[in-house]
Amino acid sequence: MNERELPGMVVWVTGASSGIGEELAYQLSKLGVSLVLSARREHELERVKRKCLENGNVKEKDILVLPLDLMDRSSHEVATKAVLREFGRIDILVNNGGRSQRSLLVDTNMDVFKELIELNYLGTVSLTKCVLPHMIERRQGKIVTVNSFMGIISVPLSSGYCASKHALRGFFNSLRTELVEYPGIAVSNICPGPVQSQIVNNALGEEVTKAVGNGGDQSYKMATSRCVRLMLVTMANDLKEVWIGDQPFLLVVYLWQYMPTWAWWITNKLGKKRIENFKSGVDADSSYFKFLKKKHD
Ligand SMILES: NC(=O)c1ccc[n+]([C@@H]2O[C@H](COP(=O)([O-])OP(=O)(O)OC[C@H]3O[C@@H](n4cnc5c(N)ncnc54)[C@H](OP(=O)(O)O)[C@@H]3O)[C@@H](O)[C@H]2O)c1
Asked: For residue 36, is pLDDT > 90?
């Protein structure tokens, strides 16, 4: 099935103010779904909404801008009720909002690790817990979580981020087994590799108050539109897990999954270079990934 199965659905997207979530809003609005756009920055959500109305197949009444902080778990129940009041149902919850990390454990304040777990993991668990009873009542729905290659593999400078994404993968794989009596409820883990967005710009560094602030070169990353198109196919087909990435990055994930001893060896070699670049102030990602791509080509 392709994404033309989705029109008419009510889709709640977190992290809709930027990057993957923003592009998802555009592609979903072209399909004619009802959209709930959430993130912290309301003015950015309003900008995304305007663009959806200009270019999409939706009307004003089809889009709800709902500011939401994933870290503020006490607000999630109220937000869920607001969506149900507006549209009467939630067909798809897309857990997309999140932040990454660029720092070595030894130099990093514990608050950074706490923030990554509170936001990427507990925030997502909390919102899912609010929405799920409604899906159980209807015996249908889709819970789609934007995980990462970092939920499967691990690299240096992102230990807190890797931990949060590994936790999410374990959580949703377990939740799926709890929902065995509800075959109409699908749980999908979407694991993208490097994709063009603001993720590195917004990544946490050594202190929780300081983002990396320099997104670096994005040319080697997958186009956001391509990643999102494949996410729509995932949603239409209720796929349990998808890995979305170009080569050679995908190959690294296969190694971690099927030949971990080789993966550890290679990751040590490449990781050393990544740390060296980071310490010398070179764009760690760009040189690391370009190095990988060059080796592959
Ligand atoms: N781009 C990649 O290479 C890549 C690869 C694998 C996985 N991912 C995953 O894709 C997802 C989207 O990231 P992106 O690449 O699109 O990055 P992005 O451009 O930085 O977007 C991140 C989104 O998360 C929202 N967000 C951050 N903190 C939040 C909070 N406390 N409460 C609610 N929303 C919050 C941001 O909105 P506000 O700042 O307005 O709140 C923004 O809309 C993340 O889960 C990320 O881990 C990305």
From this structure: yes
pLDDT score for 296: 65
Gyration radius of the chain's alpha carbons: 19
Comparing 37 with 219, the larger pLDDT belongs to 37
Q: Which of the listed residues 199, 249, 285 should we mutate to test ligand 1's pocket, taking the one with most ligand atoms within 8 A of CB? A: 199
Looking at residue 217, the DSSP 8-state letter turns out to be: -
Residue 40 Cα: closest atom of ligand 1: 41
Residues 6+ apart with CB under 8 A from 6: 28, 31, 33, 92, 232, 235, 236
What CATH homologous superfamily does 3-246 map to?
Answer: NAD(P)-binding Rossmann-like Domain (3.40.50.720)
Half-sphere exposure in the Cβ direction for 45 (13 Å, CA): 21
Ligand 1 pocket member 216 (CB < 6 A): no
Q: How many CA atoms lie within 13 A of 87 on its CB side?
A: 24
247, 297 contact by CB (below 8 A) = no
Determine if ligand 1 sits within 6 Å of the CB of residue 160: no
